Amino acid sequence: MEDTYDFEDIEEKWQQYWEEKRLFESELEPDKPKHYTLEMFPYPSGNLHMGHVRVYSIGDVIARFKRMQGYNVLHPMGWDSFGLPAENAAIKRDIHPNSWTWDNIANMKEQLKSLGLSYDWDREVATCHPDYYKWTQWLFLQLYKEDLAYKQESAVNWCPDCETVLANEQVVNEACERCGAEVEEKNLAQWFFKITEYADELLDDHELLDDWPDRVKTMQKNWIGRSEGVEIKFPVDGLDEELEVFTTRPDTVYGATYMVLAPEHPLVPELISGTKQEDEVMDFVSEIKEKDEEERTSPESEKLGVFTGAYAINPMTEEKIPILVANYVLMSYGTGAIMAVPAHDQRDFDFAKKYDLDIRVVVQPEDEELSGDTLEEAYTGDGLNVNSGMLNGLDTEEAFDKIADYMEENDIGNKEVNYRLRDWLVSRQRYWGTPIPIIYCDECGVVPVPEENLPVKLPTDVEITGHGQSPLAQVDDFVNTTCSKCGKEAKRETDTMDTFVDSSWYFLRYTDAGNEEEIFASEQANYWMNVDQYVGGIEHAILHLLYARFFMKFISDLGIADAREPFERLLAQGMVLKNGAKMSKSKGNVVDPLEIIDNYGADTARLFILFAAPPEKDLEWDDEGVKGAFRFLNRVWRVTAEYADQIKELNLNSLQVGNLDKSEKELYRSIHLAVKEVTEDLDRRKQFNTAISSIMELVNSIYQYREQATEENIDLLALAIKTTILLLSPFAPHATEELWSELGQTESVHLQEWPDYKEEALKKDEITIVVQINGKVRDRVDVAADIEEEQLKEVVLAQDKVQDYLEDKNLVKTIVVPKKLVNLVIQ
Ligand code: ANZ
Ligand code: ZN
To answer: Shortest CA distance to 73 belongs to which of 124, 40, 36, 38?
Structure first.
């Protein structure tokens, strides 16, 4: 065989071979255990970056490993190919989004193939293809049928630069997540999906997700923001009105000394009408409305408010308490009004201090007396109720239950659960997305497009200017249609769907990608789902993963798939950094994957990126590390080349390794140890870096043995080399494939069985102990690995050499470093 590792020829050759042999295609095999490995599909921007290399290498190792373990593996790839960049390219470079997108897909597919990833390309999907978005539209219709898709006029986030509505999630610090422009508020009729219907299940089913990172579950939990409380009615003094407030602390109701309304609260105008405060309040209201919610509610921001002149009656104390309007209460949460309990809520406390409002303690710790006059901050902990009428002496939990029940019985309040989660706004005033399959008819109103008329195709001759309303609204052929109910002239919806809708169900389409009759056959989905291992970026911890979970539950409720959760295990990979910063064009610290592949090969790129850091940690790019990975592959290559001719003559399935001497035993042990460590690292721990270290150690042992061995046991060497190649094959699939064939094997290394290890081979029965006398190495002794310390001292003292040194000296001290050395101090 060749002495030098010629990665270029090898990689191309084997990629072709895999494709010809259709090695990674999978079909339903009911009798075989399945494994579904999935990496988040990319947006086809046109070029592969290191982040892609990382996530796809991780997934590929798992897929190849599982295949060797005997699983029927599904490992698909596709394109999240609707979205704004295609439209921006159209505007900037006058290329049609369609051709821009498909060119990019072609490019990226070639680049992905050059990495040697084991995808079943037969299942490729592209969300912008009518065969795919037909089913996205079908899902919209099912949601509509179930009253889970509805249209509503609402204040929406509007990005003036992208000229589109944004979901709350796409607004970061008041700015458009995509372009950074400051977001405005606009009133529009929009389509929503009722994800809130699933809020409890989305929360409760976190329990099923044992193998998800805790931080992802926590982020989702906070996003859903479930809180249990009571909605309490406060009569307004002198008016036939009631103010409803939502509180999570009804046990503090005796300490409510004022009320606060959100500036947008509908009762504000009525309360102030004709009073002397009217102008002042209205000015304040319009000023605050300008500010966004995050700024208004952040704990640091200054609390601002005005008195309305009106009073409410505390239903428990019958006291008159003032009603104010303040910036820190939001219309979008609860009822948009609160009872303020300054002694026990920090925001209320800050506000009360500033405006000199009553602070009344109603809860205090068991061993401390608190007073409103001396309190320096709100006491928000649990405790015992005081100054609280019927609640006096009760602890916080008892007080909550008692007052909640009392209020329900006396029609003062109702137990309520509130969520921070809002319904999902899916309308986008864009062209390059899935058309919403709805028709508006003057006679019939909102008419869903009949299923048999799907897909509603995106027209191609459309002008994209980046200005005005939805581009589709300018295309008369598209807009003007006939009503599918009454046959009269009607108009189509011209908004498209948020691209997060496209990616909320693609994992299901992969299970039956070519199906032209249905979204997927239940039999296929039920065999392949759930995704056993999902790999992707932490930036998708909330939105994509929450939406996908919502869709899975809905689809399961439709009765066409059993799974309630889409992703069994989740691995959130870290970023690829250079010089401490995320690689980005603007920072000028980008390393192009293609360059690495050209110079060192895909196997080196994969090996480096998996070796440099544990998968969920950030990874610092290191050119030396890349070279190191390359050198390691060469090292494996050379030692295999040296023995290939001899090994070829053997039957690799029945190697004879008996009667081992000491150094042979050590190599034998290294083989089994590496198998054990790599298997465990890949299986449970997903620690690819330490798995690679274990393989490196095995290779070191082979080199060591080769130097020491007096008489070669070629079967043992063959076993060591064979095992190295098998263990390394998921990481460096091309080089190992070539080496495997050089050992005379005719079947792909990737179809081999994953090696086993023997527990008894791992025992280290003898170790070598260094003997020092006054710090100088004088001798070595072989002893049982599990020898007791006292016994070890005895053995050392009994050695001839040691006896010579001791002859006319005294032993002053014996220092033992377990399993390593004994140092005798003599005088
Ligand atoms: C009285 C009270 C006393 C409160 C106390 C807290 C502590 P979570 O857990 O986030 O649901 N709140 C209710 N609606 C609000 C709104 N629209 N804008 C701003 N704040 C609002 O928080 C619920 C608590 O947040 C409610 O309970 C209310 O203050 C406040 F010792 O009511 B609480
Ligand atoms: Zn009609």
So the answer is: 36
pLDDT tens-digit map of 700-719? 999 999 887 666 688 999 99
- For residues 639-654, b (16+ Cβ closer than 10 Å) or e, as one string? bbbebbeebeebebee
The alpha-helical segments, DSSP class H, found in 418-542 are: 476-479, 499-502, 506-509, 522-528
CA angle 750, 751, 753 (to 5 degrees): 100
Does any domain span residue 629?
Answer: yes
**Is residue 646 classed as helix, strand or coil in its secondary structure?**
helix
Residue 648's closest CA among 745, 747, 748, 744? 744
Take atom 25 of ligand 1 and give the residue whose Cα is closest. Answer: 247
Q: How many domains does the chain have?
A: 3
Contact present, 243 and 259 (Cβ < 8 Å): yes
Same domain, 691 and 628: yes
Best mutation site among 228, 249, 363 for ligand 1, i.e. most ligand atoms within 8 A of its Cβ?
A: 249
Of 714, 738, 762, which closes a domain?
Answer: 762
CA of 449 to the centre of ligand 2 (A): 11
Unique residue bearing structure tokens 């993963």? 545
| 801: containing domain | 766-826
In a domain, 307, yes or no: yes
The CATH number linked to 247 is 3.90.740.10
Q: For residue 336, give the ligand 1 atom closest to its CA.
A: 17
Q: Both 272 and 380 in a single domain?
A: yes
Q: Are residues 280 and 350 in the same domain?
A: yes
- Ligand 1, atom 27: nearest CA belongs to which residue? 247
| CA of 442, nearest ligand number | 2
In a domain, 297, yes or no: yes
pLDDT of residue 265: 95
Strand boundaries in 517-604, DSSP class E: 531-537, 567-573, 576-578, 581-582
Ligand 1, pocket residues at CB < 6 Å:
227, 246-249, 252, 262, 329-330, 333-334, 336, 338-339, 341, 344-345, 418
Contacts of 815 (CB under 8 A, 6+ apart): 822, 823, 824, 825
Do 242 and 390 share a structural domain? yes
Same domain? 728 vs 796 = no
Question: What would the pLDDT profile of 123-166 be if each residue is shown by its tens digit?
Answer: 999 999 999 999 999 999 999 999 999 999 877 788 888 877 77
Ligand 1: nearest atom to the Cα of 334:
14
